[in-house]
Amino acid sequence: MSDEIKKLANNFQKYLRKEYSDIKTILKYKTQFQLLVSIVLSAQTTDDNVNKATKGLFEKFPNAKSLASAKISQIEKLVFSTGFYKVKSKNIHGLAKVLVNEHNSRIPKTIEQLVKLPGVGRKTASVFLAETYNQPTIAVDTHVLRVSHRLGLSTKRLDPVQTEKELKMLFPKSFWRYLSMSFVQFGRDICNSKKPLCNVCKFNNSCKYYFSINN
Ligand code: SF4
To answer: Is the CB of 15 under 6 A from ligand 1?
Structure first.
């Protein structure tokens, strides 16, 4: 890893810490179970949409036991607006059932155990552990992937697991649990997928993507 990339990572980290110092999830939940369900539902939609759907969902089925005994058709009606509602309903129903039957309604505390639950991938597990236990995890979603590769912070493959490894080598552990949320926000505010605001971006001088489109 070159000194140039290390310097860029350091400057980028300082910028994100300052710019998004009070960043936190806007998902509304009262329990760990509700948080995990909300994160599963948040795939391919906004957190606002999830909050609107979970208001009704958690009023009716606030915990694993009640959701496990719900009918899929009831769940589908309640989470319809989050998109991909059939798959999501099946997943959160299955998730609730596994928690009740195999974990005494408790949520596992490790990535390895979490990813065995229906609908829970590495990204969901990482977000959950960072939010609930302040565990140093990095959740690589499409924004994190895009920003990392455009800037040149991750170079080898456009692959979440590989990118997570590279980011972990580049940034201090104390920053890992803030990294995903601040990269996502930067990706929304500045480094948009279709129209990145490169002209106002403070990192255009050292950005691999910016260099490639201007040379
Ligand atoms: S210069 Fe453009 S592509 Fe590079 S990080 Fe900034 S906004 Fe993204």
So the answer is: no
Residue 145 and residue 200 in one domain: yes
Ligand 1 centroid, distance to 209 Cα (angstroms): 7
Residues 161 and 186 in one domain: yes
- Which residues lie below 8 Å from residue 160, measured CB to CB, with a gap of 6+? 122, 123, 140, 141, 145
**Hey, which of 144, 203, 212 would you mutate to test ligand 1's pocket, going by the most ligand atoms within 8 Å of its Cβ?**
203
Residue 108: give the domain boundaries: 32-133
Of 99, 133, 167, the residue that ends a domain is 133
For 42-160, where are the E strands, in sequence order? none
Number of domains in the chain: 2
CA distance 148 to 167: 8
Ligand 1 atom nearest to 201, measured from its CA: 6
The answer on 120 and 142 residing in a single domain is: no
pLDDT in tens, 129-183: 999 998 899 999 999 999 999 999 998 777 899 999 999 999 999 999 899 999 9
Does the Cβ of 190 fall within 6 Å of ligand 1? yes
To 10 degrees, what angle do helices 122-133 and 32-41 make? Answer: 140
Look at ligand 1, atom 2, and give the residue with the nearest C-alpha: 198
The pLDDT tens digits for 45-72 are: 999 999 999 999 999 999 999 999 999 9
